[in-house]
Design goal:
By secondary structure, the chain is α+β, with helices and mostly antiparallel strands. It has 3 helices and 5 strands. The protein has a domain of 73 residues: Beta-grasp domain (Ubiquitin-like (UB roll)), CATH 3.10.20. The chain is 21% helix and 29% strand. A 5-stranded mixed beta sheet has the order 2-1-5-3-4, covered by helices on one side. It starts with 5 loop residues before the first strand and ends in a 19-residue tail after the last helix.
């Protein structure tokens, strides 16, 4: 019996919107983010993930590939953005129009503006 402790980590990747690939791994001893990515099989299944250039995070916080994992960590592989979020928001606003967008669209009868 070895003295190394084993625990589970999850590796998550969304190759396209609303499609999520999740792999649960059992790791023993010290394991880095890169090692978990390699063991998950996602690098082989999705060649567009370049392990050297891709951005990863653990529970939504940016992480380095050589960072060591802890029990129950969730490694997230991020896709590059196709559209700047600010530009997308402006385009949605233009499409919706100013009357149907914003915080105070639904007004109660008899209420004052802004309440």
């Amino acid at each position: 019996m070895g003295s190394e402790s084993c625990w589970r980590v999850t590796v998550v990747y969304a190759p396209s919107p609303r499609q999520v690939q999740e792999v649960v791994l059992e790791v023993c001893g010290s394991c880095s983010v890169l090692q978990a990515l390699q063991r998950s099989g996602l690098l082989q299944r999705y060649p567009e993930i370049d392990s050297r250039l891709t951005t990863v995070g653990i529970w939504g916080r940016k992480a380095k590939l050589d960072q060591l994992l802890r029990a129950h960590d969730r490694i997230e592989v991020y896709r590059p953005l196709r559209v700047d979020p600010k530009v997308a928001r402006r385009e949605r606003f233009v499409k919706q129009g100013s009357r149907s967008a914003g915080l105070f669209v639904k007004k109660r009868v008899g209420s004052q503006a802004g309440y």
